[in-house]
């Protein structure tokens, strides 16, 4: 294998596939990056066996020569060293050559690195997915849907299925749901599907977080392929594979209250800042619980009290309070997470009593909903 | 105590004095910030008993009212909570009032915090320094002198005196020296002294690092007072006290070679980058040792080799090589630290053989010198 490549493109691709490489792997070759040079260009692959990322660098793009292949071939190089080396090479052009015994030379200007490579034949193959059923989602929408749900997955392995986000596709609509059993995040949107198939899968939260980091905002669309145990996200020159979680996701539809006794409309930012302040003096051990009470004249009081430190009382002027008066306690952290995930300047909160789950959504928007279970303190 | 204050000024002062507050202290009251309101303004103090920082906020500055004192007094508030609270207050104006039993109320807009305070009488007093002998250093020069020496202090407590920087004042000149016995950093400069006194003290490296962070680049001068066991840095509205290290600093003057057998002039940045690349494949356990050899035609070769990973060879074109040919090995980390501390585009390196300490300085500049002990590998 021998090729000459633009350094910046190589650095970008290495950074992308590095997101899948773990230093804590039981399969030693997965600490490496696989590089394959064909007559079309160079393909890099990184994987931790849960997530696999493939980045392709074409010979030519928009009339610019990016890679010049001298001799096709393949190699696996230690990701930790290879990624640091390419970043620090002195010139814009890099030559990579595999010599005898998998010895790989990386040349740029007067710098010459010799790295011990591994046989690319021993690198695990990526899953082969039948790409019959593809649906498309605009990149910015996909990133928003991930951001607005993935924070609510469980971080505990007691119920592994809850560490993922439930993705359902039905009648041209994608629904994403995440819950750690104390709160739930829900987001739906129309997507472009080519057929009437429907899916119901659970994607690991970690995979979605990595996907979000790697997706280029300049790309218009991401194509998505779902199979029985894998999901593939396809962007330009980039393939992102994730395994799916096995098991049935709980039916969450009955968790969301259908009626409400108190409805409050608040400015999202003012409310978020008041919760943030009240959480400062809320005890850590109890998930920063704050109290929320309706007062007269549309005022909402947020307070917390930890006798050994002190107490805080804050007031927020609501736009409207409809229905019964209310005193309720909840986790400040869950509330701040939920408010940050909402879009729009105003939030509508619907309560059905101090002991019942309550939910928030932007005004006049049914596509997103954040639900929180209260904490019993009153 | 009761006063009304501009939030931004309070936030700034709290952040400054926080730099001296440690959460790991054996004196519980030192986890707090002392606040004293007099008819002139408000003084905040933070201390970990090694470093103490005092920040004064005057009632009025440049015609602007900053503080309105309603009732003089004093209190100590938990630094961790107080600093978070002031940052997140909703309005530009804050009212602070001590009520009964040291209960302190912090009000801003509709937010009201009640914090349990401590009696300011129990807070340790700051050292009283006789300010007879003051010398002045421009702030940017002081920060440069700290930055160019403090990195070379020892991080090990085997010889505690080496964890500090040796400051000497003599004949209107300040000399700063730091060494961890593997390398040495030296910097001197003329300073404004009012008399013919001389000093020879050792200031803890940690104190100098904190001082650098806190000094405002907009201030022209810092006044320095040195006593037997304390040093005080005075900037506008800011006092920074540090204890001195006890013991005699070793005589380092004989460490610096007076002759040289090989003199090389290199572009500092090119050389630094080559060392950085060579260090990538140098073994961690041996302080990233790299080899340095003179070749023909004024070329310097930098290389390293770790058989299980690979090797790297880099070349740098020198401006001149005078004297004997040389092969020498040294810590890449020490070399990079030293090169980053130097000023100027070019560096002159003087060697007296592969086993002898060598030193670097900017071309035509005797005010700064970086010395490194080689490693025996050839």
Automatic annotation (TrEMBL), chains A, B:
The keyword Cytoplasm applies. Transmembrane segments: none annotated. It is found in: Cytoplasm. GO terms for biological process: DNA strand elongation involved in DNA replication. InterPro entries: DNA_clamp_sf, DNA_polIII_beta, DNA_polIII_beta_C, DNA_polIII_beta_cen, DNA_polIII_beta_N. Residues 1-127 form the DNA polymerase III beta sliding clamp N-terminal domain. SMART domains: POL3Bc. Keywords: Cytoplasm, DNA replication, DNA-binding, DNA-directed DNA polymerase, Nucleotidyltransferase, Transferase. It comes from the Bacteria. One of its GO terms (molecular function) is 3'-5' exonuclease activity. One of its GO terms (cellular component) is cytoplasm. Residues 137-251 form the DNA polymerase III beta sliding clamp central domain. Residues 254-376 form the DNA polymerase III beta sliding clamp C-terminal domain. NCBIfam families: dnan (TIGR00663). Belongs to the beta sliding clamp family. Confers DNA tethering and processivity to DNA polymerases and other proteins. Acts as a clamp, forming a ring around DNA (a reaction catalyzed by the clamp-loading complex) which diffuses in an ATP-independent manner freely and bidirectionally along dsDNA. Initially characterized for its ability to contact the catalytic subunit of DNA polymerase III (Pol III), a complex, multichain enzyme responsible for most of the replicative synthesis in bacteria; Pol III exhibits 3'-5' exonuclease proofreading activity. Forms a ring-shaped head-to-tail homodimer around DNA. This is Beta sliding clamp. It comes from Pseudoneobacillus rhizosphaerae.
């Amino acid at each position: 294998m021998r090729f000459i490549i633009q350094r910046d493109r190589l650095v970008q691709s290495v950074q992308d596939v590095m997101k899948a490489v773990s230093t804590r792997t039981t399969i030693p070759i997965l600490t490496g990056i696989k590089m394959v040079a064909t007559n079309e260009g160079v393909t890099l692959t990184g994987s931790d066996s849960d997530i696999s990322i493939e980045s392709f660098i074409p010979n030519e793009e928009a009339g610019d020569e990016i890679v010049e292949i001298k001799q096709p071939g393949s190699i696996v190089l230690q990701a930790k060293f290879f990624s640091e080396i390419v970043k620090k090479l002195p010139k814009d052009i890099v030559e990579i050559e595999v010599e005898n015994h998998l010895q790989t030379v990386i040349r740029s200007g007067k710098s010459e690195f010799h790295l011990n490579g591994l046989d690319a034949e021993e690198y695990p193959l990526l899953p082969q997915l039948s790409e019959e059923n593809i649906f498309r989602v605009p990149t910015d929408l996909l990133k928003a849907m991930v951001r607005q749900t993935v924070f609510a997955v469980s971080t505990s392995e007691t119920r592994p299925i809850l560490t993922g986000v439930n993705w359902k596709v039905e009648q041209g609509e994608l629904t994403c749901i995440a819950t750690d059993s104390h709160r739930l995040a829900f987001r739906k949107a129309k997507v472009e599907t080519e057929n009437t198939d429907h899916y119901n899968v659970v994607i690991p939260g970690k995979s979605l977080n990595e996907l979000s980091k790697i997706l280029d905002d300049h790309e218009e669309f991401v194509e998505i392929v779902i199979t029985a145990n894998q999901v593939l996200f396809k962007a330009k020159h980039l393939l992102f594979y994730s395994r799916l979680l096995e098991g049935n996701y709980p039916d969450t539809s009955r968790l969301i209250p259908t009626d409400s006794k108190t409805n409050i409309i608040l400015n999202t930012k003012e409310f978020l800042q008041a919760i943030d302040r009240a959480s400062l003096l809320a005890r850590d051990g109890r998930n920063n619980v704050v109290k929320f009470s309706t007062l007269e004249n549309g005022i909402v009081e947020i307070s917390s009290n930890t006798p050994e430190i002190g107490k805080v009382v804050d007031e927020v002027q609501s736009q409207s309070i409809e229905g019964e008066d209310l005193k309720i306690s909840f986790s400040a952290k869950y509330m701040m997470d939920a408010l940050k995930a909402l879009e729009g300047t105003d939030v509508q909160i619907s309560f059905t009593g101090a002991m019942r789950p309550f939910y928030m959504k932007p005004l006049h928007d049914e596509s997103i909903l954040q639900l929180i279970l209260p904490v019993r303190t009153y």
